[in-house]
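Risk register update: the risk of archive-format incompatibility is retired. Evidence:
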Amino acid sequence: MSEKTKQFWAGVRAEVPLLIGVFPFGMIYGALALNAGLSKPAAQMMSSIVFAGSAQFVTTQLVHEAAPGLVIVLTIAVVNLRHVLYSASLAPYLAPVSTRWKTLLSYLLTDEAYAPTILKYEKEEVTPHGHWFLFGAGLALWTIWQISTALGIFLGTAIPESWSLDFALPLTFIAMVVPVLKNRPAIAAALSAGIIALLAYSLPYKLGLILAALVGITVGTFMEGRE
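Archived output:
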């Protein structure tokens, strides 16, 4: 087995535990997208093109509430702002990679793909084929996301509310976040963002989420600067 293949399948294996929580999340999105008024092709295309679970959920909710287009765009931009931070932290490890590879990996970069990848990169030295790990993790997630979304769209309202599938998402994010809370700035950022998210939950258009993200980034940056 070549080194590329080893790295690829290592990424897939590292992603498998997170896929358990992603699958019901995708099904819920598919059902909610239809309830929000999106057509089946539009709902599936959003998963294929946007490929950002939290952004897709926020979009469907804002569409359902008939929010202005500018509000939707700005909200999604802020929600996905964290990907800039993900990219910056991975940049040193992917510096030797070609622009074509960087373009593909940036598309596949998500919360679930980033978490196991950065943990691996921090433990090991930069290798010529290390980007195949991120490719494997990202592609595994992309595949499951498309399948789960399609299943949610197909089943639609047939998914009973009593199943409470939405519990899987918080558990998935907790599993991703806890291993990377290794220092005071990270812990402070997570706690401050969580507190603000709870306090500002009732704000319209999910603005509480934006506020929580900004507060978390600010607190984490401030703490890191002091240290």
